[in-house]
Protein 1
Amino acid sequence: MSVTKPKTKRLLMKIIRLHQEETELIKLAVENNRQAQQQIYSKFSSKMLSVCRQYIKDIQLAEDVMITAFMKVFTNLDKFESKGSFEGWIRRIMVNECISYLRVQKKVKFADDEIYTEESFNAIDSQFSIDQIQFLIDALPDGYKMVFNLYAIEGYKHNEIAKMLGINEGTSKSQLSHARKMLQTQINILKKQDNGTE
Amino acid sequence: MEPNNFEKDFREKLNQRKIEPSDNAWDRLDAMLSVAEKKKPKKDRKWLYIAASILGFLLVGTVFFNQKKDIQITPKNTVVIKENTKKDSVIKPILNHALPVKTEIAVSEKTSGEHSVKEEKSLNSKLNKTIKNEPKPIAESSVIIKNNQEKKSINKSLVTEPSKKETVDQLLETAEKSVLAENTTKPKSRLKIDANDLLNQVDGELELSFREKVITRVNKNYQTVKVALANRNQQE
């Protein structure tokens, strides 16, 4: 033990300081090496909390969801295939955890309306601050928010969103169009306010 | 539906954003991970429990089947011996009963054939009566009768009636046959049935006890496994 511990520590320091090799870190984390796990956590936690915050307004709840999602990351780390990006994989787990939280805890239900208009929005040259953006997203109902985040921010397609949320593709499209309309009006209000103050 | 300009802006800004989690967030995750790690060896132990219980079952099963064989062998022997003794006892009385009657007949014919038929008749009738009434003490009575017959045949005068003699003989024979039949069939059959019944009873008892043992064993094992599982669950 006295021989192996410094050895692994030295190895870890080497990995962390010189190479930061993700695959080595993952390998160690799979073997429940706590230092490696912490390294992964500190590398991605701030980004992932931002992702969770997109979906969940309460920062404490967002952090709780992030922690449970990280638990899933570490318990399923052996299933990660190093083909794709590790960050993308973690991000997907975060998004799924947020969705399941909203669906289970908040019991978000989607109206079965499939009416949507493919109207083109006026190109808005938005120069909002990140806080303003988050404020606009927070104002959306949970259903709209989920679809908007998944489509516009995460880049999922409607059929993927439909599968993730267990809804029809049409419903996903209609939710997105509703969300866009709502954001449009909110942006306009904000712009007016900004112009008024200026 | 092309993403709008504001959506692009949203995405870029949101993806750049970083929110530092609270300081105790890692501690919580750390605690959760250690709990999960503690649970993992418990899962392995669960398999150990299962393997141990299977082994226990096998052991109990082998011991049990060996016992079963012993139980089956020993009573069979005793039963067979009993049967033999019973059969002997059954056969022996028949021989004892049958032989004296036959010898008696021979004696009676030889000795009293010429001398006293009447007496013989009366004696035979007596004999028949005795035989009919009391089939078991035939040996004794026949011996007594034999002795008496010999003595009386010497003392008393003779009156010959050949036709009657024939009928008397016939009667005697029929009586003999009936007595023999009674002796052979009745007790033999009764005893034989008794033997079979006994065998069956013993077998039934054996089977019953066997079943009971199986049930109790299974119950015991089930209880131990149940307790082990309950303990494990409590520990968890």
Protein 2
Amino acid sequence: MAITLDGTLGINTSSSLTTGTGAIYNGIQSSTAVVSTSGTSITFSSIPSWVKRITVMFNGVSISGTSGIFCQVGAGSLVTSGYVSAAASAGGTNQTQNSSSTAGLIVTANLAAVNAIDGIVFINNISGNTWISCGTLNPNGTFIQTSGGKIALSGVLDRVVIATVNGTDTFDAGSINILYE
Amino acid sequence: MSSVVISGDTSGSVTLSAPSTAGSSVLTLPVGTATITANGLNSNIVAGTAVASTSGTSITFSSIPSWVKRITVMFNGVSTSGTSFVQVQLGAGSVTTTGYKSAAVINNNANTGYSTYTSGFGLESGASSAATTNRYGQMIISLLGSNTWVYSYNGWLETYGFGGTASGSVTLSGTLDRVVVTTVNGTDTFDAGSINILYE
């Protein structure tokens, strides 16, 4: 076994090893929450190459139209094709709704302009540069939208973009953040 | 800083020793902008102590450290005496009982219902409220920022063979320090199963 500490040693935030509990502070890194009240997309960039899981968190997120929301990822530049993804609704009269996308990891099946969504989407590295997503969101505390998808990137993931599907609907409420680890 | 290399042979370990004096011991690494990589690192997820959910109206996991960014609540055959839904509440100094935005559904072809929760993070809906229901599943609760926590839940309701799915959010008034599993009416008692948490 070998452990190497070199001159680039450092951790982004206050970083400590603690005894007793076995915990390591900041094993999960948090980005900065972004207020999702304008624009057609929100970008989290400079994601480190060692990341194997990204947690995208939605808090009361709403958009101006009905086109829905997807997550896109990138490696040097944003990837806008090649995704396999689908979302479906469960509960209430919405349970027959579903949607799919090849332009992103779609996370909503049917979304009214008045809907504000809360929940989590996980994007996990399964192997190499292939990433798998799964999500559970609820619009306005009424029904549930579940989703899953995958994307094989040509390089190391370095960004996550949360965007409206048609690229013209705009975010008008809520906040979004990511955890990465 | 010049390079420092600690090299081992084919097996063994490297130990960073805290002071022997009793109390809280912290080993601090300097602030920087680069990365430490540790393959095979373990124990960066901390487990609580599993609690048998066989009595009482609530189960509390307290003294959760302030640095925690994710909590996983695990349900193993959890049942209650009545028909009130099981929910999870968070707290900061005291338990928070209002302000939750949460919805849960049952995943089966025949049930189109959903349940909305405002007093906690819900797990279930509709027919899952029977007293004989055993719940298996996990709830993942993540810190978005500024004391706002979001969650998702996936589980199975043994008695019915239904899946349950839920998600939502809540903003606390301070730093999270506890998780409480209870029922919506607060009077039904737990009568089977066990519950534990992981935090990281």
